[in-house]
Amino acid sequence: MSPKITDWAVEDRPREKFLKKGMSSLSNAELLAILICSGTKRSSAVDLGRELLGMVNNNLSSLGKLSVSDLRKIRGIGPARAVTIAAALELGRRRNLAELPEVSVIKCSKDVADIFRPLLSDLSYEEFWVLFLNRSNKVIDRIKLSQGGISGTVTDIRIIMKKAVENLASGIIVCHNHPSGNLAPSDSDTKITRKIREAGNLMDIQLLDHLIISDRDYYSFADNGLI
Question: Are 92 and 106 members of one domain?
Fold first, then answer.
């Protein structure tokens, strides 16, 4: 059995190490240990942190997708600790959102990805967003159209067009995420893209692109000649 953190030399304890040497001196497991607090009868907090990271192959992005129920699968992590960890991960995500780049003009698919990846890449469920642009491709507004489950979300084309008219948009870009990480467009992705484009053509509102976001990359319909 690993020694408890209280048995360690003071300078090696995560909290003390954090204060003395700075946050960059701590491993991911040690940072988690601070959230988990003290050791349990089973192991130290650092060991629990290592076990938790092992669940996601040391991938912090995957860690951010774990629910409180997932976190509680680790023996020694009860409801309070699970909520603490989940809250810390959510704060990290919100910090990323607060630091979203202010992209005023869309010049390429990467500009769109830079807007939506912080919003969508860590989610364990699908969300569908719409970006509204004027004739100069300047961003007017963005909205979350819908939120669904792991395998899909409902897209109402009438709402997209209504919001586009309300925003006096000349162009739109739609975007959704694939929590599975598979960037290949599904048949439903292709069909909804075609329907949005056709509806836009009737109203002189151009569908400029449709992006699919994963935690590592993105897929652009326009870049692949599908729009």
Answer: no
Whole-structure pTM value: 0.63
Q: Which domain holds residue 30?
A: 5-97
Where residue 122 sits, what CATH number does that domain have? 3.40.140.10
Which residue has 């010049």 as its token pair? 107
pLDDT, tens digit (0-9, with 9 covering 90-100), for 161-218 = 999 999 999 999 999 999 988 999 999 999 999 999 999 999 999 999 999 999 889 9
- Tokens 């089973």 locate to 42
The residues with which 129 forms a beta bridge, in sequence order, are 144, 175
Placement of tokens 């939506």 in the chain: 116
> For strand 171-177 and strand 206-213, is the pairing parallel, antiparallel, or unpaired?
parallel
Distance CA 212, CA 189 (A): 9
- Dihedral sign, Cα of residue 121, residue 123, residue 128, residue 132: negative
The answer to whether 63 and 56 are in contact (CB under 8 A) is yes
CB 127 within 8 A of CB 120: yes
